[in-house]
Amino acid sequence: MSHPENATVFLKDKERAKWHDDTLWIVRQKRDVTIHQIPEWEKLRELASQIKDHTLSKLDFYLEELEKNATANGIKVHWAENAEEHNQIIGKILDEKNCKAIVKSKSILTEECHLNPFLEEKGIEVVDTDLGERIIQFLKQPPSHIVMPAIHLKKSDISDIFHEKLHTEKGNVDPVYLTYAARLHLREKFLQAKVAITGVNFAIAETGEFVVCTNEGNADMGVHLADTHIACMGIEKLIPRRKDLGVFLRLLARSATGQSITNYNSHFRSPSPGKELHLILVNNGRTKQLAREKFRNSLKCIRCGACMNTCPIYRRSGGFSYGSTVPGPIGSILSPGIDLKKYSTLPFASTLCGSCTDVCPVKINIHEQLYEWRQEITKANGASLKGLSMKLADGIFKSPLAYKISGKMMRASLKTLPDSIIYNPLNAWGKGRNLPDLPPESFKDWYKKNRK
Amino acid sequence: MKKDVPHIGLFIPCYIDQFYPNVAIATLELLEKLGCKVTYPLGQTCCGQPMSNAGFEADTAGTTSKFISDFAKFDYIVAPSGSCVLHVKEHSPKVDKLKKNQEHVQSNIYELSEFITDVLKVDSIKGSYPHKIGFHASCHGLRGLRLASNTELNEPAFNKTLQLMKDLEGLEIVELTRKDECCGFGGTFAVSEEAISVQMGKDRIADHVDKGVEIIVGGDMSCIMHMQGIASRDKDNVQLMHFAEILNQVMS
Questions:
Q1: Assigned architecture for domain B7-119
Q2: Cβ <8 Å between A432 and B139
Q3: B62 and A394: CB-CB below 8 Å?
Q4: Region B50-79: what's the mean pLDDT?
């Protein structure tokens, strides 16, 4: 289904749609409050943007530096060209360890690579340990938001799910009670898993270490109890030096949730004695995006989700309406690079209002890239029906006479046509809106009479 | 023409010409009252924005060349629409053989309120307008031309349009809950994403109506046309106006 169709369905439940809009708007407001506590906020954004631009311009160099330094620290570094290679590498490690159950935290990349179905097919139990992730895993749903994966669910929904899966009291919606139930359930899983998988928020080339940011401490819980830690990162998650990290940590949580910092920022540098630490560097289309000049800087993204919270379309259509791993504005500029045809409606799911660009902590010009993807998509589609009408429009506008005639005809026909034709169901303008009252003459006609 | 009186080319976006001649008249009269020499080039049509935003920028070369030829001879080009001005400045395709003229047009085109504050250096308009208004900040003017500070950025507050109205006697400007959320017009978005577009418009209007706003005032008739269409369908008790109409009225 296309984005407009999905959005129409989403908006049918008016009350829920309004709740979704309000909930995300509250997150946006929390973000606004915290950024105003930092006078140098705009300087920080500029600095982060420049650090990322610089890193992307020498990505090969920094990746090799990361590999060299991480290896020297005792980390086993793997390179994966695509999702399949990424999954195979993990599968092989799990086979070697004879591991039948893993715990996982904080990784949109493993979503992107469809790791869960791959492992489940091999008979391995995968438990997502972020609370939101675990909730949607019970429902067999993908995340609807990259930071708040279960944001589309209400407390009462979660109470029902937990009642069914964790045998909590029916109808008890107390968040403390529900969280405690999830905690007990997850502790059991943490204790059983020999291998823990995490994502990576930042990898530091200079030191060969990487950093995982969570609020629940679940990444640490999983990693410290397991014998083997596998961390998966997209190759763009790189910063040159450790001293650059502060810039990003200050921006990330404030942009994502309005917190001043995430509760746990865990640095991983070397495996503990007797344990193993793996780092998988995944390309999966990123170098292709790097080669596209107009879209390159989408790779600066630090996955804070601020563009989703601010987007008036995302808030009113929900994450699933995009049908892509990363939804919302940033997803709409990343996804067409992966499959132009499948995601061709996404760059049009925007009014180009520009709010996404201005909240972006690394200054990705998201709305300008949406505009540029539109140009690419129409080129790829060739002369569609809309294309013909646009060419016709160009013909009208470059000739003043044709414009005058068509304008006059439009005003005349709108005056004489019955409402049933103007407001028929095929006319999307008229479904929820009236047309303006028609003036007796255009400005041009008035000007000719009233000015010399 | 005297050298110190700059000659202004009045750019009236096509839908304003056809649907809202009163806004165009108000713009012309306002500039004249402020002492400007203004000409409306009769051959002008459209800037090409609807096509470009729909993904057909490449097909607007003809329209763009026409626009440049119509307006290159003026010292300044002024329009009562931030959206169309932004398009001419940033999204019209490069026309190589008109390079010099295109650069002149792009660096001397202004939205009406920024022309009055930044070029004419008028701080505010004096007069009386005893009404309760809400201001709709259109996105392209706001985040594209930076006609006002926006809530996403950490920057000092300013608003070029409201600055012109700040000294009007009796005027009450209402503080909105969502100061600068998009109204959902978005050009072809209004029809291709009809459901969200209308919902966004309803939400925006409700923010004003809930606070007892009499008149929603804006600087882009495209947003106003969209919200007006919804308000009139839903029988909301609120008027919509372009700020040029108000300023021209108080100066008469």
A1: 3-Layer(aba) Sandwich (3.40)
A2: no
A3: yes
A4: 92
ipTM: 0.95
Mean pLDDT within A419-438: 75
Q: Which residues of A touch B44 (CB under 8 A)?
A: 400
CA distance A24 to B225: 28
- Do A277 and A233 touch, CB atoms closer than 8 A? no
A411–B229: do the CB atoms touch at under 8 Å? no
A382: nearest CA partner in chain B: B56
Closest CB to B43: pick one of A310, A352, A400. A400
Q: How far apart are CA A432 and CA A203, in angstroms?
A: 50
Question: A359: nearest CA in chain B?
Answer: B152
- Percent of chain B with pLDDT strictly greater than 70: 99
pLDDT of residue B46: 84
Check if B7-119 and B132-250 are the same fold. Answer: yes
- Domain-wise residue ranges, chain B: 7-119, 132-250
Chain A residues close to B46, C-beta within 8 Å: 393, 397, 403
Nearest CB to B55; choose among A41, A377, A397: A377
Per-residue pLDDT at B4: 72
* pLDDT, greater one: A290 or A398: A290
Query: What pLDDT does residue A408 have?
Result: 63
* Inter-chain residue contact B54 with A316, CB threshold 8 Å: no
Please state which of the four CATH numbers 3.30.530.20, 3.40.50.10420, 3.40.50.2300, 3.90.550.10 is assigned to the domain occupying A38-284: 3.40.50.10420
Q: Which helix (H) or strand (E) holds B39?
A: strand B37-39
Domain boundaries, chain A: 38-284, 395-450
Write the pLDDT tens digit of every residue in A344-354.
Answer: 999 999 999 99
pLDDT at A385 over 50: no
Q: What is the pLDDT of residues A314-327, one digit of tens each?
A: 999 999 999 999 99
The per-residue pLDDT of chain A, averaged, comes to 92
Q: Do A313 and B196 count as a contact with CB atoms less than 8 A apart?
A: yes
Residue A394 in this model has a pLDDT that exceeds 70: no
At the topology level of CATH, where does B132-250 sit?
Rossmann fold (3.40.50)
Mean pLDDT of B150-165: 98
- How do residues B182-206 score in pLDDT, each as one tens digit? 999 999 899 999 999 999 999 999 9
Query: Are B45 and A397 a contacting pair at CB < 8 A?
Result: yes
- Say whether B169 sits in a helix, a strand or coil: strand
Hey, of B8, B11, B17, which one would you mutate to test binding to chain A, going by the most A CBs within 10 A of its CB? B17
Instruction: Give residue A387's pLDDT.
Output: 53
Nearest residue in chain A measured CA to CA from B231: A433
